[in-house]
Design brief:
The protein has 246 residues and is mainly beta. Helix content is 6%, strand content 44%. The protein has 2 helices and 19 strands. The strands form 5 sheets. The protein has a 5-stranded antiparallel sheet with strand order 1-19-18-13-14, with no helix packed on it. The chain has a 5-stranded mixed β-barrel with strand order 2-3-4-6-5. The longest helix is centred in the middle third of the chain and has 8 residues, at 115-122.
């Protein structure tokens, strides 16, 4: 059993397909079949500025939300109608063809006052984390993929993780944070600090490194455990929380 919790802005930008400033208009509820307490909304986002992705100022894009009634009022998109702000959009399949986007988390809508912060982050490497679901029992593999991506056409980076010579190498200022239950993870075996040999990434070619963390760390402690990586808490992946099985 596991879930992602905190969502740093940098990680939200990393898995966005379009980042724009604009105003949501024409919001309407769309009927849904079934008994689940879900409301679907659709509307048009009028774009006046493009921070990242393929769009043009003055154009519009179609947005859709599925809102689970009673789950969290902050996820109800109806209060965003007519508001201008910065939108971190994700593409979703469209039954009618054309482009369709969604905003899956309340932090994907920001006030205009955060534009400079967003622009600054878009110019930097962005860190994400993919973890294979499982029981995470002691003695079994614990696979995690460390991803560094960018919105730039080309970016040279010094902060990343790799496996080399049977060791887990943290280059530059890369940090791997693991906290297990009420105690921290046992010190890593063969986890070393690298010299930050530059690597080159692009929007189409992020750096992806899959690692079996059980080869390098002994997890201990009961209760929830947390894993994240990056260069700081601000420039980091989402927190991945898991529960070890005995």
């Amino acid at each position: 059993m596991a879930s992602f919790q905190a969502l740093p802005l940098s990680s939200l930008l990393a898995d966005s397909d379009l980042v724009v400033s604009g105003t949501l208009k024409g919001l309407k509820a769309v009927s849904m079949e079934g008994d689940a307490p879900v409301r679907r909304y659709e509307g048009d986002l009028h774009i006046d500025g493009v921070l990242a992705g393929d769009a043009a100022p003055g154009s519009t894009c179609r947005l859709r939300w599925d809102y689970v009634v009673g789950l969290s009022s902050s996820l109800d998109p109806s209060f965003l109608a007519g508001q201008k702000g910065i939108w971190l959009l994700q593409a979703v399949p469209s039954e009618k063809g054309g482009s369709l986007f969604t905003v899956s988390h309340p932090s994907r809508f920001l006030g205009q006052d955060r534009k400079k912060e967003v622009e600054s982050l878009l110019a930097q490497p962005l860190f994400t984390l993919e973890v294979e679901e499982g029981d995470h029992r002691p003695g079994t593999p614990f696979y995690a993929t460390f991803v560094v991506s960018t919105w730039k056409e080309k970016l040279e980076i010094a902060d990343y993780i790799e496996e080399s010579g049977g060791k887990l190498v943290l280059h530059g200022s890369a940090v791997l944070h693991i906290e297990c239950g009420v105690t921290k993870a046992a010190p890593g075996r063969n986890v070393v600090r690298g010299k930050g040999r530059p690597a080159v990434i692009s929007r189409k070619k992020p750096l992806r490194v899959k690692v079996d963390l059980a080869r390098y760390y002994t997890f201990r402690g009961e209760g929830a455990s947390t894993l994240w990586w990056g260069t700081s808490e601000k420039l980091s992946s989402p927190r991945y929380t898991f529960y070890q099985m005995k």
